[in-house]
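Bit of a strange request maybe. I'm writing a small parser for structure token strings and I need a real example to test against, not something I typed by hand. Could someone generate the tokens for this chain?
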Amino acid sequence: MSRRSKILSGALVTSALLVTPLGLGGVAASSTPSAAVTHTGHTMALSTASSPEDPDGDGYIPANPPVTGVTPSAQNPPHRYFHEFQANCSVSHTRPDDPIVYPQQPGKSHDHTFLGNTTTNASSTTATLSAGGTTCKAPGDLSGYWMPTLYNGDRPVLPTGPQVIYYKAGVTDYTSVRPFPKGLRFVVGSPMQSADEFRHHPGFVEGWECGDSFFNTEFPASCPSRPDVQLNIRFQAPSCWDGRYLDTPDHKSHMAYPVVKPGTNDNVCPADHPVALPMIEFKMAFPVNGDMSKVRLASGPGHSFHYDFFNAWDDRTLKALVDHCVVGGLQCDARGYDETHPEAGAALGADYRLP
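Reply from user aminoacidic:
Good idea to test on real output. This should exercise your parser:
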């Protein structure tokens, strides 16, 4: 059966997707091109163009080659408390663009704060990102990471310095995790999700926090006015891939969160998304405190937080870090070095490049 034959008509897509609890991460399908979707005070315009990497415009970007013959691993390797490394990336720019949700449509999105690749814009593709620069410590990380811009009143509040983006094992069998395929992209969360959906999202870790205030769905009314206090959020991405598509029309369906294996406490990938990839976790810190009454996101209130990832890592560099740190059961910095296991060495050199 062809991919196109599996696509619902425009009207059916609209009705099917609008009842999905977490919405579309900013995307809505409609048989009326001029329509828009409004939810919790936030209006999203419809996408009217497709990515150059999707030549037939059906929303599916096939992996080439696809990953087949994989079943979710139920193995339980020797326990290691950590199996992760950090990608430390700084803010590069802000722009009302989103090359995943609104490809080739500059200015159509709410404002985003971009980290990592310095060239990310509405026209970004795997090829353009791979030819760009990066604010990440590892020059091989040319990926694009972005999230809605945070404002205090009308003033943008941008994270300062390298931010922490964890690459972790989301499954119990950390030895089964493999690198992201080049060009994989997805949206985590949705600007149209409700407060309850945000709080119970599988990626929710600690919500908004500052000072002694934790697990907030919305921004705290106030934070201690001290130099060491910032507004923080941690949010995890799905880490199980279907092995077939680099993107799908809702920018989510090709990815899934791990599930608990019945009768155990083990996390495994679901059968329809059997390929274990690194679990990205954003840990962002925004330099704002004191009176928080005017703090908002470009996408709306605090519960509208979401983010996007577009993989453009150098393949060899990413594989070295995943194999050494995730599969190797280490807690690594951006060089792939675990200071508690110096005997293991580092995946990258002192310049954060492959030796």
